[in-house]
Structure formats: structure tokens, C-alpha cells
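Assess the record.
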Amino acid sequence: MTTETLFDNVKQAFAPVAEALKSLQAANVPESAREFVKQTVSTARERTATAFAESEKVTAAVETAVVGGVSEAAKLGRNISQAIHEDTEAFFDGIGRLAAATSFSEAVQIQGELARARGEALISRAKSASEYVGKLVADGAKTVQDNFAKATSTAV
């Protein structure tokens, strides 16, 4: 069998398919089919626009949460810096008071007062920090819940 004969056999075998494709190219697409495709494309565009708008809302909510987190982190850093400054000042004041003591018993009394004052300051800071963190967690959870509710209510 030669290559030409093989080619003719394949050509004859696929002749009905080739004829069908030629007639398909000449066929007219009904108006209802074209309208269906146009309507489907229009609906898909609307849904895509809605999905994009919803993703923008979610992105804005995340952005707001991140900005709030950065702001709180900066505030926390300032509070830590302030606490370190206060502790340093109290340390130097304590050294000055100890240096002014005229007897060993007075120095022990001053040392006790300083230790008690530092303990009270530490307890006060721990309480404030606990309240602050609790408030941050509650506010953060509320914000996440609100943003999730907004995003899901408009998406449905």
C-alpha cells in the first residue's frame, strides 16, 4: 500500500465528517440561541462584578483590621517605653533616697518601701495589661464578626 493510497483511504473515511463541518459552517445560528448566549454573558458579567465588589469589601475589612492592629501595636510599644522610663526614674529616685539614709535601719526601711512601691506598680500594670488585652480581644472578635456578617449578607 502506497502513501497515496493510504491518504485516499483516510480521506474517504473522514469524508462524512468533512461534509458535516462544511454544512455546519454554512448553517445559520437561530436568534434564540444568540440571545441565550448574550444573556448568559451579561449575567456572568454581573456576577463577576458583584464578586469583585464583595472581595473589595473583604479586603477593606482585612485592611482595617491590620491598620487597627498596627495602631494598637504602636500604642503598646509606647506604653512599654513609658513603663521602662517610669521604672528607671523610680530606680534612680530609690538610689537617691538610699544614699540619703543616715543609718542601716533607715536604709532597710527605705528599701522595703521601694520594694513595696515597685510591687504595687507591677500589680497595677499587670491588671491594666490584662484589661487592655481583654478589651483588644473582645473588640477584635466583634470587628471580625461584624465584617464577616457584612461580607456574607451582601454575598447571598
